[in-house]
Amino acid sequence: MQHRGQEAAGIATAGDGELYVRKGGGLVRDVFQHHHMLELKGNVGIGHARYPTAGCDSASAEAQPFYVNAPYGICLAHNGNLTNAAELAEVLTREDRRHLNTSSDSEVLLNVFASELQRVGAARVTPADVFAALNAVYRRCRGGYAVIAMIIGHGCVGLSRSEWHSPAGAGTTRNPKGQEWMLASESVALAALGFRFGVISVPAKRVFIDEAGASAFAAVRTERAPHAVHF
Fold first, then answer.
1. What is the DSSP string of 153-222?
2. pLDDT, position 164
């Protein structure tokens, strides 16, 4: 759906361990043609429409989702602002030995999550592992933000750090093949596709949905941090 976010758009999907990505500068209708959609294969994916908040002015460089190949392969779509992005970027470069290719705080947040998930060191992560990494992200990354990430071969996670008026939520529907899940920053996106809406991230809850469609939720008590977020 084209709401705000006229700067850039992107979609990343995954299936059978393969990653498929299409993104670029401009409106959704300009970035995605029919043949692009046919190439986005798989049973899980994330999308993002960007409007400038932090980072450089290059629409193509800042188009999301961002991707890192370790651990597991992670794609991330993010909206909001990290107030300590510069401090985190320095730590990621100096201590975690991670390379940042842009000045985007979204790439910083992705690498913080990847770094924390890397500490698990297991061939496959459990929901408990994912929530431990998300809790660490919450501790390290200050500001107001909403995040959806896709861990290749494992599933999708949602995280929101915003106690007031954050609309991020999850919805479900069923088709002949079984249950489908959708995470979105606004309930209208869920309703438009026939998903039953249920709020999962106000205040600051986390959700993990594995590739088989099973879900797990976790929540922590947080301080109030007013910030409206939209993907």
1. TTEEEEEEE--SS---EEEEEEETTEEEEEEESSHHHHHHTTPEEEE--TTSEEEEEETTS-EEEEE---
2. 43
